[in-house]
Design goal:
1 helix; 5-stranded mixed sheet
Length: 155
């Protein structure tokens, strides 16, 4: 049966994964030799990508900010679905919205449940301490990967 979504919904969304092979130095003095960031996008970037908005989640949040996932509860939209979509405050007809799962989280981006490339086992409690500054550096790399020179807005 085909999905039907409210007219102001971004509809069905699929998380994407960006793999970074370049080491990321962390404030704690350690580094991640490589890492992954899971993210979702909503809307379309304009020609110079100046309409890009980064939405940051709370400590226990995730990248699924709007729309619906195929394999999730069909009645459960992203956690800020009432603000992102056609005609909503972050109108996807105007903005290209990006939300990533923070490093150190357990919702797809590299964190304690990820495999440590040195040991081939989950990092577990050996995962390095990450700070907000580390998140910002990883978000800047994601912006570079998406060819975004500057975020129009960061929320």
């Amino acid at each position: 049966m085909p999905h039907t979504f409210p007219p102001d919904s971004v509809g069905l969304v699929t998380p994407q994964t960006a793999h970074f092979a370049e080491p990321l130095a962390l404030d704690c003095g350690r580094s991640l030799a490589e890492y992954e960031m899971v993210y979702e996008t909503y809307g379309t970037p304009n020609a110079d990508r100046s309409n890009a908005v980064l939405v940051c989640h709370a400590l226990s949040g995730d990248h699924h900010v709007a729309g619906y996932h195929e394999d999730a509860d069909p009645g459960k939209p992203g956690w800020w679905d009432n603000c992102i979509g056609p005609g909503k405050p972050l109108d996807t007809g105007e903005f290209f919205v990006v939300c990533c799962n923070n490093l150190g989280g357990c919702k797809g981006s590299t964190g304690p449940t990820a495999i440590n490339p040195d040991t081939r086992k989950p990092y577990g409690p050996d995962f390095p301490i990450v700070t907000v500054k580390d998140w910002v550096r990883s978000q800047a790399r994601l912006a570079d990967r998406l060819d975004i020179q500057q975020w129009a807005v960061i929320i």
